[in-house]
Amino acid sequence: MSEINSTNWNYPTPIWFGFNRIADIDSALKEMGITKPLIVTDPQFSENDSFKKISKALDNKSISHSIFTEIKGNPTGKNVSDGVKKFRSESHDGVIAIGGGSSLDAGKAIAFMSVQSENLWFFEDVGDNWTKAVTESLPKVIAIPTTAGTGSETGRASLIVDETNLTKKIIFHPSLLPDLVILDPELTFTLPPHLTAATGMDAFAHCLEAYCARGFHPMADGIAVEGIKNIKDYLVTAYKDPSNKIARAKMLVTSSMGSTAFQKGLGAIHSLSHPINAVNDIHHGLSNAIFMPYVLKFNKDVIEDRLILLSKYIELKDQTFDGIMNWVLELRNDLSIPHTLKDLNVEFNFDLLSPMALKDPSTGPNPKDISLDEMKQLYIDSYEGNL
Question: What is the pTM of this model?
Fold first, then answer.
């Protein structure tokens, strides 16, 4: 493939894809009826030349806007509440969420919570509290990812850390799905290699766990396996050749595909990750990458047939479960991903983390039942490198 043209899609939400599509931000605001957007981004990206161009373009069009950058790498409830205060006090009528997953998750949550009377944690993804949300007059959200991994731009949830108990919670509502997505691969060209690797492995984890998750959802499965094929063909290239247009474009699309696919469900990779993201502030994509082979081994007896089919589709030479496992290990090595938690040089309290992982909403769809002792053993195996 030598060229990728600009195009628009409408699944699972309107998506404008193509190089330099960020130039269409004015048209996007008009289409969404947004006259005074709050731009939500992380402190690092706010200093990026691409971001400065966007802000200048809005100034040139005399579009009144403010910028909110008080977001941590794992965004917190306070980040969201502070953003809501700014949104309300300055009478904004929409959100442009631009950046990595933290910015997108925070931006979506800020827009959603700006009209709610309940607190943020009321809408955690347990029970049916989401049905009690206010949906009238919700501000429109335009999501613009600058990393290729989280897929938050096509997701109906935001992952936010509850600071009171250091728990990463999934805030869910169908209206958290952004109203418009701009996928501009040029915004990912300056992504550092280690973040290209970690976010790319996050997209891989989304596709892989969705494919293996319990339940019958062939549409999600189809998107997932095509996403995994893209990971195999383009992630290492994007990592080693950051300005490769085709690789960057394919990885950005794959990120959105992963989030779309995991509407089916996730699994223990994410169950294990969420607690250490909240308690130890470990990058989510990095933790997913570390846990991946250990969870595959744990689930082997119930996913082996599916992974053999996957190995054939992505054209591995060794079309077996072991072939998939060896490819995962080789891929992580090519991306300089640590093999164990021990390599992170961080102290972990597995007695604290294991119950949190077991209660995580991602545990339910895991293809195999997991006990508390088994969850703790997965942490230990991932720490010691027991494969």
Answer: 0.95
Host domain of residue 139: 7-187
Cα separations in angstroms, 315 against 130, 209, 307, 319? 42, 19, 12, 8
187, 220, 243 - which closes a domain: 187
Chunk the chain into consecutive blocks of 10 residues (it has 387) and report each block's average pLDDT, rounded to whole numbers. Answer: 82 96 93 96 86 83 92 94 98 96 97 97 93 95 96 96 91 97 95 96 98 97 98 98 96 98 97 96 96 98 98 98 98 98 97 97 97 98 96
Interatomic CA distance for residues 95 and 65, integer angstroms:
10
Q: Write down the pLDDT at residue 2.
A: 55
Within this chain, do residues 168 and 293 fall inside the same structural domain, yes or no? Answer: no
The DSSP code sequence of 314-328 is TT-SS-SHHHHHHHH
Radius of gyration in angstroms for the set of CA atoms belonging to the chain, rounded to a whole number: 20
Q: Find, among 138, 54, 157, 147, the residue nearest to 96 by Cα.
A: 54
Looking at the structure, do residues 314 and 364 belong to the same domain, yes or no?
yes
Judge if 169 and 291 occupy the same domain: no
Other Cβ atoms less than 10 A from the Cβ of 226: the count is 16
Residue 248 to residue 234: CA distance in whole angstroms: 8
* Spatial contact of 186 and 50, defined as CB atoms under 8 Å apart: yes
Cβ neighbours of residue 285 under 8 Å, at least 6 residues apart?
A: 149, 150, 195, 197, 198, 199, 200, 201, 202, 205
CA dihedral 340→193→168→162, nearest 10 degrees, is 130
Cβ atoms of 210 and 259 closer than 8 Å? no
Q: Are 66 and 92 in contact (CB under 8 A)?
A: yes
pLDDT at 271: 98
Q: Please indicate, yes or no, whether residues 201 and 346 belong to a single structural domain of this protein.
A: yes
Same domain, 209 and 330: yes
pLDDT of residue 228: 98
| pLDDT given for residue 48 in this prediction | 83
Are 106 and 143 members of one domain? yes
* Nearest in space to 338 (alpha carbons), one of 193, 191, 196, 198: 198
Number of structural domains found in the chain: 2
Specify whether 74 is located in the same domain as 180.
yes
The Cα 325–Cα 364 span in angstroms is: 23
Q: Identify whether 308 is part of a domain.
A: yes
Q: Indicate whether 116 and 253 sit together in one domain.
A: no
